[in-house]
Design goal:
69% of the residues lie in helices and 0% in strands. By secondary structure, it is mainly alpha-helical.
Length: 104
């Protein structure tokens, strides 16, 4: 079975997340950071669009994929908003979780 690969970094989505967070105003509120990351599901939709054939073969549904991805909200914040995690490391962490839970 094919494995998940490191995708091209979606800089447009990163800019969108930053813009959403900025539009929410000042403050260090983790809820605002999380809302920005999950706004319109742009980030998960990007990954699902690229990986769904492989994920479906491993038993994943969109809903299960989202549940696993939620574990990485902090990592996505570190990538998109804080600049403390690079894209490759973020995706490697997500892939490890997706392999661990295997969809079923």
């Amino acid at each position: 079975m094919a494995s998940l690969s490191i995708l091209e970094e979606p800089t447009d989505i990163k800019r969108f997340i930053k813009a959403m967070r900025t539009s929410m105003g000042r403050g260090e509120d983790i809820d605002y950071d999380s809302l920005a990351v999950w706004a319109l599901n742009k980030f998960p939709k990007y990954l699902w669009r690229k990986w769904s054939p492989i994920l479906r073969a491993k038993g994943y549904t969109w809903q299960k994929f989202l549940r696993v991805l939620k574990f990485h909200t902090g990592d996505i914040i570190m990538w998109a908003l804080a600049g403390e995690l690079d894209w490759e490391e973020l995706i490697k962490r997500i892939i490890i979780s997706l392999e661990r839970y295997r969809g079923g």
